[in-house]
C-alpha cells in the first residue's frame, strides 16, 4: 500500500469501466423452480461472499435462536485475542444449566479451550466463562455482543445472554443469523473449529485429557458441510445454522424453530447450489499509471478472481477500474496501485487489487543551490 500513500490527492482519478446491463440486488434474487418447502417457522439461505439471498421464508421475523447465539460469543472471543493465556474460570459464570463442556470450580483453561467448548458441545459454561474473561462480566459482554451486531447491520437482533438460554428480549432473524455466520466463517480459526467433528484437549485443575464432540450432524450428513452451529431450548425449539462449500461456492443456511432441521437443510443447501455457480471475473486492464519524475509509466495486472453468482447476476455485474493518474517514488513489481471493484445493484460485492506489472526506479535528483542553502541553514 506504500504507493497509494504517496499519491497526491489532487492527482487521483478513477478510470471506470462498466459492463452493459441493469443492476440486480445482491441481497435477493427471484425464486427459481422447485422452491423447497420446510418445516421451519423462519428460514434463509445466502451465498456467503455476496450476501445474495437464494431462499427465504419469514426471514426477518424475530425469533429466539438458542445456542446459535454462540456464533457471536465465539467470534467476539476470537477477536479479543490472547487465546492461549491460561486462567482460572469464574466460579459463578460456570454455574449455569443446560449443555456443558464440563467445567468445574477452580479449572484452569485458555480462551482457545473455551472456543472449542462453546462451538462443539455447545457449552453454556464455556460461553459464560469466555464472556467474563473477555469483558469482565456477563452484562458487559452482552453490551459488546449488541454493539457488534449493530456494526454488522444486524437490525433484527438483540442479545441478552452469551449462551442463548431463553431470556426476554433475546432474539434474531434467520437473515441476520445467516449474515452473522457468513462474517464468522471468514475467520480461519472459527472456520477450523466448526468444521471439526471432535477435539482432544487438556484442561482442569490439574489439567487432564478429554475429548469434545461436535453436536452438528450436518458434518456427516451433507457432502461439503463445513459448519456451523446447532441450538435448542424449550422456547426456541430446534435451531440450526449450517455452511457448505462446493466448487468454490460457500452457502449459509438457517432455520429457526424447525422440527425437521437436518432434512430441511439438505434440501435448502441443494436448492441453493442449484441457483449459483462460480464465475471467472474479467480482470483484464490495459490502463497504465505515470510515475512522477521518471518519464515512465507502469502497467498493471490482477490475479485471477472468482465470484459465485446466479445466472441473472452474471449478466448484470458492474465493473469499475480505480487507478490514479500518477504515483510518486519508486514502484516495486507486484505493488498495489489500484483495484477493480465489482458491484450488484450499487452494492460492492468484491474488490480485486491491481498490481504493478514491473519495477520503476525514479532517478535521484541533485538538490538545487537554494535547496542546499536551506539544508545547510536547516530551514
How far apart the termini lie comes to 31 Å
Number of strands: 17
**What spatial form do the alpha-carbon principal axes imply?**
globular
Indicate the CATH class of the largest domain: Alpha Beta
Give the total of domains.
2
Q: What strand line-up does the widest sheet have?
A: 14-16-17-12-11-15
Structural class: alpha+beta
Low-confidence stretches: 1-26
Round the Cα radius of gyration to an integer and report it: 26 Å
Overview of the molecule:
With 379 residues, the protein is an alpha+beta fold. The protein has 2 domains: 2-19 and 282-356, Sandwich (Peptidoglycan synthesis regulatory factor (PBP3), Domain 2); 42-276, Beta-lactamase (3-Layer(aba) Sandwich), CATH 3.40.710. It is 27% helix and 27% strand. The chain has helices spanning 2-5, 70-80, 111-119, 124-135, 138-151, 174-184, 188-194, 218-221, 261-275, 311-315, 369-377; strands at 42-47, 53-57, 86-88, 108-110, 198-204, 207-213, 225-233, 237-246, 249-256, 277-280, 288-291, 296-301, 306-309, 318-322, 326-327, 336-344, 347-356. A 6-stranded mixed β-sheet has the order 14-16-17-12-11-15. Strand 16 and strand 17 (347-356) form a beta hairpin. It is globular, with a radius of gyration of 26 Å. 44% of the residues are buried. Mean pLDDT is 90; it is low at 1-26.
Amino acid at each position: 500500500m506504500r504507493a497509494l500513500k504517496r499519491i497526491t490527492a489532487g492527482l487521483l482519478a478513477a478510470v471506470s469501466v462498466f459492463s452493459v446491463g441493469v443492476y440486480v440486488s445482491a441481497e435477493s434474487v427471484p425464486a427459481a423452480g422447485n422452491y423447497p418447502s420446510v418445516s421451519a417457522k423462519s428460514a434463509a439461505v445466502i451465498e456467503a461472499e455476496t450476501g445474495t439471498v437464494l431462499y427465504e421464508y419469514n426471514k426477518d421475523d424475530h425469533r429466539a435462536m438458542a445456542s446459535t447465539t454462540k456464533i457471536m460469543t465465539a467470534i467476539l472471543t476470537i477477536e479479543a485475542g490472547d487465546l492461549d493465556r491460561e486462567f482460572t474460570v469464574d466460579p459463578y459464570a460456570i454455574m449455569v444449566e443446560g449443555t456443558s463442556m464440563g467445567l468445574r470450580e477452580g479449572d484452569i483453561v485458555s480462551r482457545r479451550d473455551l472456543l472449542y467448548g462453546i462451538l462443539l458441545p455447545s457449552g453454556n459454561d464455556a460461553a459464560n466463562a469466555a464472556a467474563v474473561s473477555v469483558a469482565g462480566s456477563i452484562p458487559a459482554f452482552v453490551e459488546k455482543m449488541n454493539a457488534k451486531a449493530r456494526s454488522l447491520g444486524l437490525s433484527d437482533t438483540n442479545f441478552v445472554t452469551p449462551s442463548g438460554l431463553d431470556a426476554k428480549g433475546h432474539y434474531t432473524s434467520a437473515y441476520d443469523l445467516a449474515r452473522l455466520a457468513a462474517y464468522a466463517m471468514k475467520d480461519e480459526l472459527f472456520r477450523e473449529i466448526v468444521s471439526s467433528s471432535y477435539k482432544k484437549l487438556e484442561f482442569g485443575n490439574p489439567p487432564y485429557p478429554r475429548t469434545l464432540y461436535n453436536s452438528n450432524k450436518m458434518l456427516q450428513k451433507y457432502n461439503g458441510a463445513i459448519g456451523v452451529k446447532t441450538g435448542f431450548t424449550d422456547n426456541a425449539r430446534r435451531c440450526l445454522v449450517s455452511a457448505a462449500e462446493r466448487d468454490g461456492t460457500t452457502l449459509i443456511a438457517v432455520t429457526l424453530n424447525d422440527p425437521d432441521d437436518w432434512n430441511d437443510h439438505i434440501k435448502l443447501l441443494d436448492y441453493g447450489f442449484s441457483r449459483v455457480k462460480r464465475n471467472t471475473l474479467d480482470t483484464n486492464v490495459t490502463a497504465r499509471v505515470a510515475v512522477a519524475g521518471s518519464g515512465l509509466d507502469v502497467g498493471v495486472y490482477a490475479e485471477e478472481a472468482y465470484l459465485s453468482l446466479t445466472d441473472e447476476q452474471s449478466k448484470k455485474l458492474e465493473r469499475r477500474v480505480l487507478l490514479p493518474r500518477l504515483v510518486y517514488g519508486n514502484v516495486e513489481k507486484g505493488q498495489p496501485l489500484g483495484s477493480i471493484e465489482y458491484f450488484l445493484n450499487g452494492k460492492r460485492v468484491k474488490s480485486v487489487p491491481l498490481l504493478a506489472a514491473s519495477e520503476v526506479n525514479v532517478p535521484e535528483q541533485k538538490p538545487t543551490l537554494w535547496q542546499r542553502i536551506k539544508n545547510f541553514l536547516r530551514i
